[in-house]
Amino acid sequence: MESASDSRLQAGSASLGQGTREPGPLARQERLAYAILLPVLGTIFVVVTYPLLFAVDQSLRATRGGDFVGLRNYTTALENPLLYEALAATGIYAGIVLPAEILGGLGLALLVHRTVRSARIRMAVYVLATLPIVIPPVAVGVIARLIYAPGYGVLNHLLMLAGLVQAEIPWLSRRETAMLAVASVDVWQWTPFVYLVCFAGLQTVPRESIDAAQVDGATRWTLFSRIELPYLRPLLLLVLFWRLADVLRVFDHIFILTGGGPGATTQLLSVYLYRVAFKFFDTGEAAALAVLVMLAMSLLYAAATRLLPLERD
Amino acid sequence: MRRRRPAQLWHLVAVPVLGAVGLVYAFPLYWLLVTALKGEGELYRITPSLYPLEPTLDAFSSVLVTRGFLGLLENSILVCGATVVIALTIGFTVAYPITRLKVSRRLRLGVLNWALSLRFLPPVAVVVPYFAIVRGLGLYDHPLALILIYTVFNLPFAIWMLKGFLAEIPSEIEEAAFVDGASRWMAFCRVLLPLAAPGILASGVIIFAFAWSEFLFALILTASPRAQTFPVGVQGLVTQFQIIWNDMAAAGALAIAVPLGLMVLARRYVLAGLTFGVIRGQ
User: pTM here?
Assistant: First the structure.
């Protein structure tokens, strides 16, 4: 009994270690895998794909009446100047939020990595940094309202208390400050996520390479740019794609904080699409926009999978 | 000596910077709580007080009882709980074969990448067809519609997190059970499932928190307290003509308290799962 179990184990670990293919049991396991996977994945595939096809169909039909109109919804969608305002707003938002979060998260990770030695404090910071990720964006929008709103908003009162401003600043109804207010919410919520990824990445840098570099008299900067940054690069790229996908879907806190205003200043692509679909009820145009957004996302995803070492085993 | 100076600079910067960051995170949460604890009379002072002069739980009872948010809380718990169970079950059926069976690398990577691609599905784009489909199925303003959609959108997390946790359990343990005469199903139930329990717990908490936070689908696919979730209720307090600050803050605080409480309770297990396996907790 014992020797039998030993040989089975050895056979198992050998085939795991070197990938030597015993045709019999291996093929059986792969068959079992397909038998389990196919029904599940098939169902998910249908559930996911059907709405996409449905959207394509919607985008080719008139909103009222449902007649086939070819690409007319697409031309209407693309001729609407509000679309380009929305794209510009999305670009500005991404331009503020992504660098702020990545530089902030990376900077904080380096700071804690370099200065905090106590394992307990490191762990505490780590736990705290996970918390913003699970706070509902709607609730973060509520907090931002309590800070920026005219009247009750506490930021104005703190600034006046400090003697920095004389009168209330209407944060949410001025173009520049409204965008900053909306972006600040994103930075508040997501910088800790970047911190987590960067901090974890820094822990994987082998101690020996750092020591060797220090013996060679490397400065802190070369230490970072030559040794730590290469380790972090794939993670930073992953975070960048991750957050870029999020910027294209950001909706909740803008809806709560400004509703896209003033004017269309903070009307990002997702908020714009929502308005076309559910305020103007122009389903055809909204579906056309939806199809275009999905195409853009597929391109982003394709780029992400090309550039990212997603699975390294 | 020359090499030490920059190190001291880091230390010099560390305390004020980390202190400021701590303040930037603590103060907004403090202000939310303070506002929630204020009575109605305190809301309309010309200069709002930085602490509640007469702390009261009135706003919480007003939100939960008078405004009927207890019902929304029930809806949210039902929807999120069902999403967790279904997403984890499906997640297991996908993660098990690609981690515990000897399958080709191509199959494993194909499944994982496909799951990841689901995560790039933009909700605001699919909500347009979903709205029409859900109405067509008669599921408009019904929790079932949200459960189905939340399950789909949380599957990538479920699959990736479970894959991470399952891959860490040595295959020798299961093989030992086979040698003792256990069937694959018995080994799964008696050996693998208990070992994977912490990972399942972590994945469950995270999926619950994500489903709890979801707002867009809930906003569009529900219309009445019969199916509305908690965040939709919170939003209702925000866009009113005149905002009742303490009620809004109390609702916001409750919306935060639920996922935060879960995270703190399950923090040991959650850490590894949260970043999609990018980070392995210690």
Answer: 0.88
